[in-house]
Amino acid sequence: MKGRQILAAAVLIAVTAGCGRDNDSGEAPAELVSFDERLEVRRLWSTRVGGSGERLRLGLSPATDGARIFAASHGGDVAAFDLENGRRSWSSQTNLPLSAGPAYGAGVVALGTTDGDLIALEADTGSELWRQAVGAEVLAPPAIGAEVVALRTVDGRLRGYSSLDGRELWTVVQTVPALTMRGNTAPYVAGSSVVAGFDNGRLGAYQLSSGDVLWEFAVAAPSGRTELDRLVDISAGLQVAGNDVFAVGYHGRAIGVALENGVVLWQQELSSYAGLGVDVSSVYVTDEFSELVALERDSGTPRWRQDALRLRDVTAPAAFGNTIVVGDFEGFLHWVDPGDGSFLARERAASNRITSAPLVVGRNMIVQSEDGTVAAYTVELE
Q1: DSSP three-state, residue 362
Q2: What is the CATH number of the domain that holds 153?
Q3: End-to-end alpha-carbon separation of the chain, Å?
Q4: Which of 123, 273, 334, 337 has the fewest CB atoms within 10 Å distance of its CB?
């Protein structure tokens, strides 16, 4: 990364990732309000992986094969845990500064590093299969499908690697603005294609086997007098649900797109760097102020807004049964009613920030915090 971009990234960490502290206007994060809990939440287990990655804004988040949970720490630790009881199946020390992942697919667990490496482990044992230098820091979990590992790096590239031996298969290159957000959007494998968002506000779908462009367009165009005003980074907001792609960018729009051909189904002015979640009827966005916004999935029409978590550095929402769940900078989890945005339950999973949207696996939900806590919860679902 050029020196100018390194400085810009540092500025953006202070300016936009500083929720959980007073912002430039002097406004403090919202204090948690009391409410009558209407949902019984039960912690199934809690454990730790490695040490703390506090304030580094890494792309470390749990992954699953449906029976096990894979998690990693910045210190190089990777571990597999039983989904139901948290019992450790294996652990591996990579001796690498891990910064993104893990991802699971085809019997492989893949992770990226701050030094620009991609490493693959055998999912059943944790033994190293291969490692590959990719040339740039990795801040988004890889995605794996059809023996291809898709990887976004901070230099504006989406790359495809063989999951068998780590050979680079193809590269898609996008321009990188002078000022970008800290973090990248994780690519999403959907059948024979991979969907990715970029720092320049573009969204695209590419052939997974070759990287050939299927469709591509700008979600938002830069505008404004300053580099900060012109930020249109799609830094975390991408989901594929059924035949549709949903994305949101900073200083941009929330958008629904047909996966097959890239036709825009709807768009709504909205700014986010945390991301979004989707259920059968709605799209839920954590906006730039950590307020939760619900949009109609079919039309993008706003349904409700919940501002009680304002500036609490809230994660992207996750749909969990008949609820929506987010984490915050103090390690709290908040269960929200998808119908009206009211609070259903609250639990504290850890003493540090929840790093990413909760991972939902059947009737269980898994979260990871910056201090290395990995915890599983369940609720009585209607």
Answers
A1: coil
A2: 2.130.10.10
A3: 49
A4: 337
CB 239 within 8 A of CB 232: no
- pTM recorded for the entire structure: 0.90
d(CA 208, CA 145): 8
**pLDDT range class, residue 14, cuts 50, 70, 90:** very low
d(CA 57, CA 371): 12
Q: In whole angstroms, what is the distance from residue 283 CA to residue 301 CA?
A: 10
Question: How many structural domains comprise the chain?
Answer: 1
Q: Annotate 219-285 with three-state secondary structure.
A: CCCCCCCCCCCCCCCCCCEEEEECCEEEEECCCCEEEEEECCCCCEEEEEECCCCCEEEECCCEEEE
Instruction: Give the pair of three-digit tokens for residue 272.
Output: 């986010």
**Phi and psi based region of residue 282 (left: phi greater than 0; alpha: psi -120 to 50; beta: remaining):** beta
Which residues constitute the domain of residue 251?
3-379
Q: What is the pLDDT of residues 204-261, one digit of tens each?
A: 999 999 999 999 988 866 555 555 444 455 666 799 999 999 999 877 789 999 999 9
Rounded distance between C-alpha atoms, residue 343 and residue 338, angstroms: 10
